[in-house]
Request: fold
Amino acid sequence: MKLYGGFVHQVQWGGKSPYETVNGQMPKGFENYLNVIFGTLNPSGKDKTDFDLENRVGNHLCSLDMGMEIETYGATIFMYRQSFIEDGSLFYLNNVLDGLHGFRIKRKISYGAAFEVNEALVEFFNSKSQGGAEFIEGDGKYRGKDDYFHHVQVRDGWSYYNRTIGSPVIPPTTETSWRWPAYFFTSNNRVSALHLGLKGTFLQDWKWHTKLTYTHNLGTYNAPFGEGVKQFSGFVAIERTFLSDVISGLTGQVSCAFDTGKLYQNSAGVMVSIRKAGLF
Reply:
C-alpha cells in the first residue's frame, strides 16, 4: 500500500491588465516573485493598488491532494481526493463539499478472452458549493462565493489562449455564450460531474477505450442557470497495431465523439487515423 499527500500552489502574476493596476501593469520583479511564492498577505509597495494591498499579488489557486494505492496480485487499485483552495474557504471548511474524488482499478493479468475490460476509472467532481452564495469578511469565520477560475485583475481567468487550465468541465464562455450569459472568463463554474473511463481489448488484437461524462450545471452565483442544465459527452475509440515483416508499428484507429444536452450545441464527429511508430 502506498499513501500520497501534497499541496499544489499555482499562481498567475505579472503581465498587463487594465483592471485594478498601476498604469496597466500588474506587480512584477523579484520582490513580488517572493510575495507570489509565499502568498504574502497585505504586501507593501508603490507598484500596488488597494486590491493588491488588501489581498495577495497574483491570481492564486491551490489544491490539497490525498491518495492511496493498493497493489494486489491481479490489480492495482488507486483512490484519491483533491480539494480546492481559492480564497480561504477551505480553511474554515466552508467549501469542503467541493472537490474531485476518483477510483481507478487496473488489471495486471490478461486471460485472452474475446472481450476484456483491463482498466476502469470513476470520478465525481463537484464545484457547486464554493463556500456559499455570499462573500463575507470579518472575524475570520466566513468567506464563500469563491467564484472559481475568476479574478478581478486577470479577467481572462484561469486559462491559456482561452482554454481552461486543469478542468474540462468548467468551459470558457466562448463555448457557451451562444445560449448562456457571459460573466468574466466562464459562465459556468458551479458544476457536478460524473465521469467513467474504460479501457480493454476484444478479439485479443484490438484495443478499445471510452470516456463518458455527465454534468449538471448551475452557471455562477452572479448569473445562475436557474434549475440547472444537463449535459452528456461521450467518446469511443478502437484501434489495432498491425505487425508486418515489411512495415512494423503501424496502428489504425477509428474514434467518434458526441455532445448532447443544453450546455453546448449538440454535435458529433468521427475520426479515422493511421499512425506509424519506429523505423520503416
The mean pLDDT is 88. The two ends are 43 Å apart (CA to CA). The chain has one domain: 2-276.
